[in-house]
Amino acid sequence: MRVVLHPDSFAVIKVGEMPELDFFAIVRDGNGITVVLPESELEKIDAVECERGFRLFTFDAILPFDLVGFISKILTALADAGISVLVFSSYSTDHILVRDGDVENAVEVLEDLSFEVGKVIP
Predict the structure, then answer these.
(1) Is residue 4 within 8 Å of 57, Cβ to Cβ?
(2) Is the distance from CB of 95 to CB of 88 less than 8 angstroms?
(3) Number of structural domains found in the chain
(4) Would you give the end-to-end CA distance of the chain in angstroms?
(5) Quick one: the chain helix, strand, coil %, rounded to 5?
(6) Which residue has the higher pLDDT, 45 or 51?
(7) Were both Cys, which of 24, 47, 83, 110 would link to 115 (CB 3.0–4.6 Å)?
(8) What is the pLDDT of residue 122?
């Protein structure tokens, strides 16, 4: 299976209201609104809190809802390598964010799990 590494650096921010800009994901829960977006979009938004320096990996496959243990196996291998992640699941696949400094190690871990890591052409 192929994993796509996006070329942009991403930020995870907390905002006071729903933004109208280019973003990857938005989660609204009881603690506020979290937005994941390319760092190049940060100047367009008023963030309450901000964590920068993430890279986005997307699993390039349609993953069925009844698939058991897929993301668990990946997260266990990354945790064993000392790599923390943020996980986002969409209707059809999973995505993980890792810190910029952990990208090379994350690629090695994913390749050891038999994933082919490629890059998105912007």
Answers:
(1) yes
(2) yes
(3) 1
(4) 21
(5) 25, 45, 30
(6) 51
(7) 110
(8) 52
Q: How far is Cα 7 from Cα 25, in angstroms, rounded to an integer?
A: 17
59: domain CATH number is: 3.30.2130.10
Beta strands in 1-122 (DSSP E): 2-15, 25-29, 32-38, 47-59, 85-89, 94-99, 116-119
The answer to whether residue 121 scores a pLDDT higher than 70 is no
pLDDT, one tens digit per residue, over 67-115 is 888 999 999 999 999 999 999 988 899 999 999 999 999 999 999 999 9
Question: What are the φ/ψ torsions at residue 47 (nearest 5 degrees)?
Answer: -90, 140
Per-residue confidence (pLDDT) for residue 74, from 0 to 100: 97
Distances in Å between the Cα of 24 and the Cα atoms of 80, 90, 96, 105 are 27, 11, 12, 23
Contact between 16 and 48 under an 8 Å Cβ cutoff? The reply is yes
